[in-house]
Fold this protein.
Amino acid sequence: MSQAYDTVIRGGRVATASDVFDADIAIENESIVAIGKGLARGKREIDAAGKLVLPGGVDSHCHIEQLSANGKLNADTFESATISAAFGGTTTVIPFAAQHRGMKLREVVADYHKLAERGAVIDYAFHMIIANPTRETLDEDIPALVEKGHSSLKIFMTYDRLKVDDEELVDVLAVARQSRAMVCVHAENHGLISWTVKRLLARGHTAPKFHAASHARAAEAEAINRLIEMAALIDQPIMIFHVSTGEGAAVIRAARGRGVKLFSETCPQYLFLTEKDLDRPGVEGAKWMCSPPLRLASDQEALWRAIELGDIQTVSSDHAPYRLDADGKYPSGQASTFKEIANGMPGLEARLPLLFDAMVSKGRLGLRKFVEVTATAPAHIYNLPRKGSIAVGMDADIAIWDTQSVVTVGDGMMHDRAGYSPYAGRKLHGWPAQVFSRGRVVVEGGTLKVGKGSGKFLARDGGDAATPRRDAGGAQDAAWRSYVL
Ligand code: DUC
Ligand code: ZN
Ligand code: ZN
């Protein structure tokens, strides 16, 4: 009898972004060591017959224990957020180390490391938010921190406390190119939004539903276009976060068609919710407030098409939880205007079940595409080579899905601290029954099996996705780069 493996997940139907097949999976220590039929026994045997065995999800855009654009702390800690993620089948998160104006980036990153080390139950990396692009941040801190494994930056083109102007944006793109880091961007036109906000408030249009009007659709398409032109000139790969409109997706498609190296993301809220959700009595619509705002059913269709065509590669949660109280969504109680209400909604736990229900149970784009957009693509784009798939040598980050379970989402059922779900009342088919992170059982039988702080930091270099094209644009662009970069 050959020696027993640590764990064997036996008899399940395994899916990757490219294949679906019946196989056992053997785990030793933290890694997958064998995939095949009739594998030798494990010290621990997991019966996966009749279930789907999928890579754990990679959520590459979530705000955790973060000082946000409005100066508020999110409702979650690293402990509560990562527990919530794990219950929803996600095993890797990339939240933010968020610099605000006047803050030193190295101190910011060190602080977020401490929070995550103390709390995270699954593995994590950080995107560094750059809101104070001084020469010290740009020339010293970013290169040093990328060298230490923080190979993605995030910038905001809107939000008073966080936005960079065009000159600063170009500065960040140029430094990222030098350091080989991905640049992720919240792309909306700030001037158009703030002008509209002032007009709406002056005319007494203060209810949450006016949040949608305050971020005109053109604000997204314009900013995406401006960003792409600058990134293409600098020859710096970018990731456009949370695309919400058909027009935004069309700008992306056109740029990819002419060979610009760019990636893009959308989120479940833009695929499953619409601006109608904001239109509730009083300030209840605040639960559905996020930025960019929820749009139309026709945008949902355009975004699904962009996913199908590969113009949008990842679907992340943009988890940004606020409680329904004065410290959260309602600083002025029932009198809170849409301008005062914090932007963001919880989604770490619901992301995969929502997408599984739509893509696998109901069949829209299918199982392999589900794995691709929720795990494999984000792992590739953010260079996490041991995450996002099921293969020998990879981390044993696995979610076993019960395709038969039917769950009606309730306000109190998620493990985050928002205290509500924007998806309450929806009936979802399929839910993760068991979740493994680096071979450890994290969730089983509806119970958490690991302690806080057991997640690990994932140092990354920029990898292929963050590598400039070098031959981008024409001869004049190349000459321009040779003079200024
Ligand atoms: N929008 C953001 O840009 N960040 C967090 C949440 C949100 O809605
Ligand atoms: Zn954003
Ligand atoms: Zn965000």
Notes: The chain has a mean pLDDT of 97. The two ends are 63 Å apart (CA to CA). Residues 217-234 form the longest helix (18 residues). DSSP finds 13 helices and 19 strands in the chain.
